[in-house]
Write the structure tokens for this entry.
Amino acid sequence: MRKIYLLLGLIICTGTSVLQAQTQIPEVEELLEKMTLEEKIGQLNLLTPGGGVATGSVVSEDVETKIKAGNVGGVFGVSSPAKVRQAQELAVKNSRLGIPLLIGSDVIHGYKTTFPIPLGISASWDMELIKQTAQVAAKEATADGINWNFSPMVDIARDPRWGRVAEGAGEDPYLGAQVAKAMVEGYQGEDLSQPHTMLSTVKHMALYGAAEGGRDYNSVDMSKIRMYNQYLPPYKAAVDAGVSSVMTSFNDIHGVPASGNKWLLTDLLREEWGFEGFVVSDYTSVNEMIAHGMGDLQAVSALAINAGLDMDMVGEGFLTTLKKSVEEGMVSEETITTAARRILEAKHKLGLLDDPYRYSDESRPEKDILTDENRELARKVAARAAVLLKKDAGVLPLKENANIALIGPLANDQRNMLGTWAPTGDFKLSIPVLEGIKNVMPHAKVTYAKGANISDDAQFAENVNALGPRIIISEESPEDLLEEALEVANAADVIVAVVGEASEMSGESSNRTDIRIPESQKKLIRELAATGRPVVLVLMSGRPLDISEEMQLPVDILQVWHPGVEAGNAIADLLVGNYNPSGKLTMSWPHSVGQIPVYYSMKTTGRPGPSDTEFQKFKSNYLDAPNSALLPFGYGLSYTEFEYSEASVNEESISGDESLTISVEVTNTGDHDGEEVVQLYTHDKVRSITPPGKELKAFKKISLKKGESKTVEFEISREDLKFYNADLKYVVEPGEFEFFVAGTSNHEFTGSFEVTE
Ligand code: BGC
């Protein structure tokens, strides 16, 4: 392969924007020389023949003919080495220039070895582990012919009504940026021409998580100060980590939909951040600009390409209108060439221009997919994603020979274990909780009863079941289900109730205005608690729930999200204490929907109340709820107890490029070995723009044997304390910073230091 790159170093000035020509690749330039305008436009067209999940109303037609005609740059929804080879042959052997295809897919939380939903994975706060999940996903997906992944989704999410919170890493920009980096590095590795790595796409640029009312695809309106400080950092971290492509979001930003937003796609992404890869639209998001009110198909397609969008997913607006727009002078041929160049460069990076069949190795699926090792990792991650929310029954971990009543609509379920956006997984391979307990606790006695439907509401179930049955309403009456469950419960020593959301109660286009556990199950939980037997709630969901009622009950609550293919084994590992829960929430859980948005870094306002729980007239508070979350960001218990010393700082002040060290001693004072996520938060006391009440600045996950102590140190420099000011300059301003170190975000500040000029 030729590796000599030509640096043109050419500076082209266009109006106010300055575009620096990138390093050019001779093979790509040679191809571009030969290409007609139509062939260049063909490279910008991404289609799906169906087979995956069609999330829009369109599935592409006549894909084969279009590939042969050189009208397609990539496809998604095609997998297996044989099918991918076939698709590549259509392009390579039939189209005039024989340019191979990008083969895309949504590999969101594992390929066939499904890991927990991303929100769950993020709760592990373990970046090495997160990177490993992406590596395994890349290895499996590439073995099956995929070379381009539509992941990670890094949209900051502070509204749990929005179903897609399940797909991201929660509410915090700092943590979100770490996760973004780990995932991009995991998918792409160090060399994209290696057969085990694939292109990664950061999505959805930008601000998709701030959709009004938590309703998917809805409008977003946000100040640049908030955007830069709170919402953009994870996308930028992905770009800094070398992500190959960026997917636009469905929402508008400052009144212009992301897919046609030049400020976003060119000024910010390319000129400010230096992004050199390609930008792909989301599913028909170019066409959707018609409904947004931006003009007809020709106008919106021209708007998109002129804004900096390179590839059009499914909508075919580029394919059908761009030539005309060039002829009419609405789009320059140079703009089309630039976009085509970016797509060809991605193909070059993958090594596809040298060998179009490098992802069509028939021997790989068997060796690389769903191996014991991969499943073992899925089990490990599912256990580390779990968050112990409450331990009032004090019954965890269970005894190996416990007499268990295993109850609940998710206790012996396979259809909901994988979670949302797992189209490449096979639910039939997932381990139900009942089976997992039998595998892991052979000396236990387990009796199962369903106890309740996930929901009794037939219309709600029909909406949830749009992609296939997730909520199956039993033929038995709710009364009979309950009675049977109580009988089983009363004959056992401990009740384990597996309850919560079906997988498609969260995810794309699965928004809820009521985020409580459905009433059918709440009733079951109340009745089980009333038996007086110890109750463990194993809670599954794709989002933070309002569990204020359940938090009042004397139960243990273990949040396991949708745990993935190894669900049952991982949950049993947790129940019996083979793994001691160490997950921490990455999104705050509200007291009620009325509190939303609620997040730990909220500003203090000019009228903070006397305390979070005490109401005072004419202060910024509610009559009927505290300001802070029921369960805050960073929160999570363990079977053991951790005690923190007061954190100390080695310097009273820093200037220039100095740094300081904040240290704390953490001791495991309980009866079990365990892991703890030690978190450092700061508060910038005086700023030229109002600061967040607190900000996560660093964290470390440590492991402590019972009785053991460790000193944890965080080095903080001025760089770590920077923020975007009103002029969007990234600065640190002199003044006092308060800090604390704890195992949750909900803590008082205990120390301070000064930053001087
Ligand atoms: C989703 C994207 C996804 C795409 C392709 C869209 O509906 O918003 O996240 O990558 O479909 O499947």
Remarks:
- The pocket of beta-D-glucopyranose is lined by residues 55, 106, 150, 203, 282-283, 508 (CB under 6 Å).
- The two ends are 51 Å apart (CA to CA).
- The chain is about 30% helix and 20% strand.
